[in-house]
Write a structure and sequence with these properties.
Keywords: Cell membrane, Membrane, Peptide transport, Protein transport, Transmembrane, Transmembrane helix, Transport. It is a multi-pass membrane protein. One of its GO terms (cellular component) is plasma membrane. The chain has 12 helices and no strands. The longest helix has about 35 residues. The protein is elongated, with a radius of gyration of 22 Å.
């Protein structure tokens, strides 16, 4: 085994040990793992997998019981089964939207932070324009213009979220560029793309990972808000935000209708936030030097 592979495995093992000692981060990881497993095995875990998109008026708004663990909705569909299939939509929206935002924001921040010219200033002013408007307001405007669909929600979130990564990477790049090892690489004749990709990017990867974890939670919450406003997936898609919006008409009698998706959103967002905070403590060397690591 090569020295580089040994070093990578040792670093990964060290991160794993630190993660196991951080109970909050471990709880967050467990919640996220639960979401992923629920999405992957939804057809087998659901008690009524064939009824997710069907209408059963005879059993509409049935309270929780032995047959329907979380009750039924206004169409008589099993809420527990729809919750599991809705996890797939949640993961799809979050992964694609955040992934697209990272692919857009990281290169922009990297280039703008490395070069100090009018082009880098233009890129940062462009991100400032997006950041000047609250993300949820801009996402609502874009989704309203394009119409309700999963694809448009992903587009709205991606278009409004990339500046957060661009700003983060810009600041980190400006800081790392002044380090001795970067100046040495430049003095030895390394090209700008090589310096950015091989020397700067690996040293700011921890900040990107932490921001991505926390960003996943924020994206899920914003997607649920868009669904609640009727700008997300159209019915009868089992999207969590839309389910809560549909339940308003039947509250407080059918309290279970909104309770299940509401708790699901809360737990998933909390999971990503806890994991992000834990990864920040583990991966950020400045925090470890400050004595916060056990």
């Amino acid at each position: 085994m090569s020295t580089s592979n040994s070093g990578f495995l040792a670093g990964a093992a060290d991160i794993g040990r630190r993660l196991l000692r951080d109970r909050a981060a471990l709880l967050g990881f467990a919640l996220i793992l639960l979401l992923v497993l629920a999405a992957l095995f939804a057809p087998w875990l659901a008690t009524h997998p064939t009824d997710v998109y069907e209408i059963h008026t005879a059993r509409r708004l049935t309270p929780p019981g032995a047959e329907h663990w979380l009750g039924t909705d206004r169409m008589g569909a099993d809420i527990y089964s729809r919750l599991l299939f809705g996890a797939r939509i949640t993961i799809l929206i979050a992964v694609i939207a955040v992934g697209t935002a990272v692919l857009i924001g990281v290169p922009i921040g990297l280039v703008a932070g490395y070069y100090r010219n009018w082009f880098s200033d233009l890129l940062m002013r462009l991100s400032d324009i997006f950041l000047a408007v609250p993300q949820i307001v801009l996402a609502i405007a874009i989704a309203q213009t394009l119409g309700p669909s999963i694809e448009n929600v992903i587009l709205a979130l991606s278009a409004t979220y990339w500046p957060f990564w661009a700003r983060l990477v810009y600041a980190e790049t400006r800081s790392v560029k002044n380090e001795t090892f970067v100046e040495a690489a430049i003095a030895l004749g390394a090209s700008a793309p090589r310096v950015m990709l091989l020397h700067i990017l690996p040293n700011i990867a921890s900040a990107i990972i932490v921001r991505t974890s926390i960003g996943m939670g924020a994206t899920i919450l914003t997607a649920a808000a868009l669904g609640f406003l009727g700008l997300g997936a159209p019915p009868p898609t089992p999207e969590w935000g839309r389910t809560i919006a549909e339940s308003r008409e039947y509250l407080p009698e059918a309290w279970w209708y909104a309770l299940a998706p509401g708790i699901a959103i809360f737990l998933v967002v909390m999971g990503f936030n806890l994991l992000g905070d834990g990864l920040r403590d583990i991966l950020d060397p400045r925090i470890r030097r400050g004595g916060r690591e056990p």
